[in-house]
Design goal:
The chain contains four helices and 15 strands. With 270 residues, it is an alpha+beta fold. The chain is globular. The structure holds 2-amino-4-trifluoromethylsulfanyl-butyric acid and cobalt (II) ion (CO) (2 copies). The site of one cobalt (II) ion has 5 residues, from loops.
Length: 270
């Protein structure tokens, strides 16, 4: 049976074995622990570059490597995306103010395996609309993960996310997607957060990928700023994102990036 592990499907998706799950578990656990440990620093008056510096120090202290430093010229250990920034926000001197919501996205490499996860934080108290957006985005990710089992398709994942979000009268970003990962950062397939049931590649035990829906309060369109990274909503509406790295098991999904402190869910945001 292990002869079949390590093969690529016809869509170029790698099938992994039990030792590979163990490697991903270690990498995912570190990324998730870092997101737990940075939480107390997310307060009004804090800069996003200070949060990034703390994250980089935690990666180093763990004996791990940041996957994002040096990736396509990116220079930071995290992406920090505040308010209407959809993703790939660059840490900098920007000072957080009361009520700002932000996504922090960290990818680490542990013994060659990539752990990629992001979640939402708030500086101070969250406004009502922001709270609804954050809750819906979190729940959309979990609906996507619930659709993960051998025999379902990637379109089933996208449909679960899109139908849930649009029923709440929010929109799913189309311009960015999840991705296969493992011993590489970005691999096939593109994991779309919208789609039709039964379409796309079929899920098989041993596939590793991220699901990372971005949800906007307004319209789905985005644009990338002149820095070539920062993606924002075109209509300046608030945006949120959650990301887990997962593996397909015989019966469902193993989430590699579960919060060790149980702090992933927005109701646990201090
Ligand atoms: N972690 C992001 C993802 O979810 C990728 C960030 S690439 C960077 O795929 F260079 F912007 F950091
Ligand atoms: Co990712
Ligand atoms: Co990420």
């Amino acid at each position: 049976m292990d002869d079949f592990k390590g093969r690529l499907t016809k869509d170029g998706i790698r099938i992994h074995g039990a030792d590979d799950f163990a490697g991903m578990h270690r990498a995912g656990a570190l990324a998730a622990r870092i997101l737990d440990d940075v939480a107390p620093m997310v307060v009004p008056g804090q800069t996003t570059e200070a949060l990034d510096a703390a994250i980089e120090a935690m990666v180093t202290a763990a004996g791990a490597t940041s996957a994002t430093i040096g990736y396509r010229g990116y220079k930071h250990a995290s992406c920090i995306s505040v308010n209407h920034v959809v993703c790939h926000g660059i840490p900098g001197p920007k000072v957080l103010k009361e009520g700002d919501i932000l996504n922090i996205d960290v990818t680490v490499i542990v013994d060659g395996w990539f752990g990629d996860t992001s979640r939402m934080y708030v500086a101070g108290k969250m406004g009502r609309k922001a709270e609804r957006l954050v809750q819906v985005t979190h729940d959309a990710l979990m609906k996507g993960i619930e659709a993960v089992r051998p025999g379902n398709t990637f379109g089933d994942i996208g449909h679960a996310i899109q139908s849930f979000v649009e029923a709440q009268r929010m929109s799913v970003v189309r311009d960015f997607c999840g991705h296969g990962l493992g011993q590489v950062f970005h691999a096939p397939p593109n994991v779309l957060h919208y789609g039709r049931p039964g379409t796309g590649p079929r899920l098989e035990e041993g596939m590793f990928f991220t699901i990372e829906p971005m949800v906007n309060l307004g319209r789905p369109e985005t644009k990338v700023l002149a820095d070539d990274w920062t993606a924002v909503t075109r209509d300046k509406s608030l945006s949120a994102q959650f990301e887990h790295s997962i593996g397909v098991t015989a019966t469902g999904a193993e989430i590699f990036t579960l919060s060790p402190g149980g702090r992933f869910h927005p109701t646990w945001i201090a």
